[in-house]
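ok, trying the design again with the full structure, not the truncated one.
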């Protein structure tokens, strides 16, 4: 195997390792939020440090591959996609930290009931994240397209959650309840952004495989021929 191929494989492995770390951050932050377990926060914060280091390492690998090998065609698309996916993964880690920090505040107060759509939204986003990483690892553009379609489901759940939370604010005169509700609105926004980053990664997979940019617009969600 050529040295260039070995380095490309090494780059892919580093991205997959980073994706595993980010998925663990998201899962842990969600457990902290849903199960109201503050001990999970330390794990999220420790993992963030590893993710930040990986981001720098992967960026450096990408730049050296371009500078030393002047890749073209699918190799160049793979490296440029890897740089964008690297950035999206790091931001997903940031959102997991935001959720964890917000959960620490929410845990101090009684649980707000009747928010059944948040766990559903969490499950949908975690599936999107898992599938976009799998699509990248296997260069599966059809799976990547399916992730784009799921973003509509997450947006629908987000709207239901926000409607419920706004109604709670309107009906409540208790300042603590209002503050918890506002915190949950921020959590909901962070969960939605996790889905947005999964969508970005899926678009990069489609670009990597087909050489087509489907970022603007992607309303049809079809793979260009």
């Amino acid at each position: 195997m050529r040295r260039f191929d070995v380095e490309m494989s090494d780059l892919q492995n580093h991205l997959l390792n980073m994706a595993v770390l980010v998925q663990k951050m998201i899962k842990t932050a969600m457990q902290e939020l849903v199960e109201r377990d503050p001990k999970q926060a330390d794990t999220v914060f420790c993992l963030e440090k590893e993710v930040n280091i990986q981001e720098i390492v992967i960026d450096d690998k990408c730049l050296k591959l371009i500078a030393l090998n002047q890749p073209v065609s699918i190799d160049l698309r793979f490296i440029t996609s890897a740089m964008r996916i690297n950035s999206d993964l790091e931001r997903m880690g940031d959102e997991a930290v935001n959720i964890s920090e917000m959960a620490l505040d929410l845990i101090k107060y009684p649980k707000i009931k009747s928010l059944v759509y948040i766990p559903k939204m969490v499950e949908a986003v975690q599936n999107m994240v898992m599938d976009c990483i799998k699509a990248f690892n296997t260069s599966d553009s059809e799976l990547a397209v399916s992730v784009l379609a799921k973003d509509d489901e997450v947006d629908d759940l987000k709207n239901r959650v926000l409607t419920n939370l706004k109604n709670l604010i309107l009906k409540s005169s208790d300042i603590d309840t209002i503050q918890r509700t506002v915190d949950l609105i921020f959590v909901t926004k962070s969960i939605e952004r996790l889905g947005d980053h999964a969508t970005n990664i899926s678009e990069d997979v489609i670009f990597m495989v087909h050489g087509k940019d489907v970022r603007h617009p992607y309303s049809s969600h079809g793979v260009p021929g």
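Keeping the full-length input from now on. Residues 212 and 224 are 7 Å apart (CA to CA).
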